[in-house]
Amino acid sequence: MTPSEFLEKWSGSAAAERPNAQSFAIDLCAVLNVDPPHAATSADRSVRPSVGGRTRRAEVVDPTDEQILERLVALNAERAEEERRGIIRWLRPEFQNPAGAKSEQQTTMAGIEIEEKEAEAKPKAAIPWPKDLPSQIAAVRDLISSDPTETWTLDRTAKSFKGAKRTQVQSVLDSLAALGLIVTFGDGRAQEWRASA
Fold it and tell me: Where are the alpha helices (DSSP H) in 33-98?
């Protein structure tokens, strides 16, 4: 049984818990690729001496911690591959994803490839950097607000203005964020800004 089949069978099950516990445990063992307690192989059996002429039930030797860890790592790799393809399996979808929305596929981690992200943006003609502070604040606010879905780094914002110094642009960005006119996230070289909603 695959993890997908297991989730499909048990995630929406309305059956009573106690009568189905053994069936659930057997299916879980199949997913984890371990023998269920009642079906031990001959290599896993250790038979106790007979009591009153009858042989006691065989005991199952539990998998080692290393075997369990190897199986969990394999299952995690399988899950990660499914998520990379955009398949997300919710354990409790009614709570974790009540709208049933399909998640977007994330191909890279945010903030890691900043230079590539900036290179992909279409270059626009540089705007002259205003002389007075109120005009600088308005110019940066208008630039960032031009596309609310777009994020801006310090370098990208500074390069959008002709004659702007990074320190000046940083001060303006910090001021706009402090006033709540733009939103900042990340820190250091990974810090980015976007228009507030």
Answer: 65-84, 93-96
Distance CA 58, CA 54 (A): 12
Tens-digit pLDDT profile for residues 188-197: 777 888 888 6
Query: Based on the number of CB atoms within 10 Å of its own CB, is 155 exposed (0-12), middle (13-18) or buried (19 or more)?
Result: middle
- Residue range 120-161, pLDDT digits in tens: 455 567 888 999 988 999 999 888 888 878 888 888 888 989
Task: Kindly report the backbone phi and psi dihedral angles of residue 57, in degrees, each rounded to the nearest multiple of 5, phi listed first.
Answer: -65, 145
Rounded to whole angstroms, the Cα distance separating 127 from 68 reads 60
DSSP per-residue letters across 136-179: HHHHHHHHHHT-TT--EEHHHHHHTEET--HHHHHHHHHHHHHT
CB atoms within 10 A of CB 158: 21
Unique residue bearing structure tokens 């402090």: 178
Strand, coil or helix: 51: strand
